[in-house]
């Protein structure tokens, strides 16, 4: 970590934990508007802070790799993590309720602490067991080689949908491409629809669009194998990801080299 990043992390952590004076807050917020690098770091920290809100007793180490952050954030958004977070919150609420009533008997407090401890253990264990596929997904989900829609017959909606996707406004982009697909299911639109759904964790929809793309006769149809594999990785479906990657490699499709690397890691 360089000196600037370390300085940013301390400032951001203090801001998010409400440890700055009013004057310091104003200076920090002014810096956010003037320093793009600081703003980018702040957004990453803010995302993680939101995912673990209420965990003020956790000491966070900010010496991280950005891929690790994306992998962790992806997992925190998953259904499994959400269930465990609710379990922990329920145990915490019950404990606080008993605390207010000054009920400290071991036969009441101990089960609550055990339940919370088990939930935390399962959360950590589940994340570690899934992290390999999650990290694979994160590493390869920097979308590139996407079709350019800025010169498709002057269709402003296509260009707007592409711009929103590039700006990571996936919900808005998805809405535009969904409307466009009602008229005609162009392969390029299917790609953007599938990737928007993938980023929004609507994985069944993503699979649907990529299957449609795979069954077209367009030049970009071979990209569907790669996108399907990434979707299965995000679902932690190792076997399905392996099968589709083997199809990709045997057909010498898009991302052949990367697919071989993933197969080596999965097998």
TrEMBL record:
Stored InterPro entries: ARM_TT21_2nd, TPR-like_helical_dom_sf
Positions of transmembrane segments = 108-127
Q: Tetratricopeptide repeat protein 21A/21B second ARM domain: which residues?
A: 153-249
The protein's UniProt keywords, in alphabetical order, are: Membrane, Transmembrane, Transmembrane helix
Q: In the record, which residues are listed under signal peptide?
A: none
Q: Coiled coil located at which positions?
A: none
Judging by the UniProt lineage, the source's domain of life is Bacteria
Query: What is the protein name for this chain?
Result: Tetratricopeptide repeat protein 21A/21B second ARM domain-containing protein
The record lists the organism as Aquimarina muelleri
């Amino acid at each position: 970590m360089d000196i600037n990043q370390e300085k940013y992390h301390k400032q951001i952590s203090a801001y998010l934990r409400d440890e700055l004076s009013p004057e310091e807050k104003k200076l920090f917020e002014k810096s956010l508007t003037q320093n793009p690098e600081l703003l980018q770091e702040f957004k990453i920290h803010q995302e993680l802070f939101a995912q673990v809100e209420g965990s003020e007793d956790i000491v966070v180490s900010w010496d991280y790799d950005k891929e690790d952050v994306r992998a962790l954030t992806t997992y925190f958004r998953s259904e499994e993590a959400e269930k465990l977070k609710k379990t922990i919150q329920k145990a915490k609420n019950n404990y606080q309720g008993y605390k207010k009533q000054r009920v400290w008997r071991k036969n009441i407090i101990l089960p609550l602490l055990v339940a919370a401890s088990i939930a935390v253990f399962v959360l950590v264990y589940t994340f570690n067991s899934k992290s390999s596929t999650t990290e694979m997904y994160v590493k390869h989900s920097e979308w590139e080689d996407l079709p350019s829609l800025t010169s498709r017959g002057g269709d402003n909606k296509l260009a707007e949908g592409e711009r929103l996707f590039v700006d990571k406004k996936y919900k808005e982009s998805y809405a535009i491409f969904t409307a466009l697909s009602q008229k005609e299911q162009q392969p390029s639109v299917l790609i953007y629809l599938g990737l928007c759904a993938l980023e929004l964790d609507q994985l069944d929809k993503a699979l649907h669009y990529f299957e449609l793309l795979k069954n077209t006769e367009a030049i970009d149809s071979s990209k569907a194998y790669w996108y399907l594999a990434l979707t299965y990785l995000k679902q932690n479906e190792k076997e399905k990801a392996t099968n589709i990657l083997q199809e990709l490699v045997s057909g010498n499709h898009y991302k052949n080299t990367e697919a071989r690397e993933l197969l080596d890691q999965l097998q």
